Amino acid sequence: xxxxxxxxxxxxxxxxxxxxxxxxxxxxxxxxxxxxxxxxxxxxxxxxxxxxxxxxxxxxxxxxxxxxxxxxxxxxxxxxxxxxxxxxxxxxxxxxxxxxxxxxxxxxxxxxxxxxxxxxxxxxxxxxxxxxxxxxxxxxxxxxxxxxxxxxxxxxxxxxxxxxxxxxxxxxxxxxxxxxxxxxxxx
Length: 187
What we know:
Number of strands: 8
Strand content: 15-25%
Oligomer: single chain
Distance between the termini: 47 Å
Structural class: alpha/beta
């Protein structure tokens, strides 16, 4: 049975929830899961010895957040000796780190697959779109849309700058659609 170490930033946020779905849907693998938040890694709050033991145990590593991956490559050189999957959920950071050759990139956007292949011609890159229910959600064939609108999906927290986005949309007369967990309801 293939042993897979899956690393997320936080269990109950969006990426952690998506990652758990993969684990639940793949019982034919032996999984170990761990949450390593980038700030905790920066501040030395993570037991790196335990992470090293988990890496040694695993046949491959499934890292669901690019920043955790980049930090671990710097902190644990032996990570370069294993197959490592890095799923790029945050597309703006595709090229924020000089990825080693053992990384297998997983992208959820076709453009990202092309971007990585251009920067790293030898890289293994796989496009795996997030799934959705086509009977509920329909593809918008009208692009660009006749009416301009702004959409946001993510956590509702002050440092995302959503208040500024809402103000700009109001001033421009654009509808604003938001969906996400309200971590800071008072905001």
